[in-house]
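Structure in, sequence out. Go:
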């Protein structure tokens, strides 16, 4: 009888934790990654606080360093939105599911309420 009680307790504990492990494994990163795809000189003139610089032509080679989980939300911006669109296409081809072309530095700053810093 004592053994049955322990088995029941263990099963209850396992049943309570298994869904957490499974749902946690499928959950994308909660924090989006903000990427500036312009050149380094443009970055030095001013970029969004908390952004990461990865020039658009290097996005395919560098993305896994900052977003290894392909379900992570990736927000891209550049000067006008053209290069961030190119980067968005490249990331989607690599299997990234949640990639947003947020347009220009100014648009992204206004939309996300993030200051431009040097």
């Amino acid at each position: 009888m004592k053994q049955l009680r322990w088995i029941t307790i263990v099963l209850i504990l396992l049943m309570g934790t298994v869904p957490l492990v499974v749902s946690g494994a499928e959950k994308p990163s909660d924090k989006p990654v903000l990427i500036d795809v312009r050149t380094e000189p443009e970055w030095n003139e001013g970029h969004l606080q908390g952004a990461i610089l990865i020039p658009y032509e290097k996005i395919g080679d560098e993305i896994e360093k900052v977003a290894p989980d392909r379900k992570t939300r990736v927000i891209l911006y550049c000067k006008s939105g053209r290069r961030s669109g190119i980067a968005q296409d490249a990331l989607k081809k690599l299997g990234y599911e949640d990639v947003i072309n947020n347009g220009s530095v100014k648009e992204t700053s206004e939309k996300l309420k993030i200051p431009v810093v040097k």
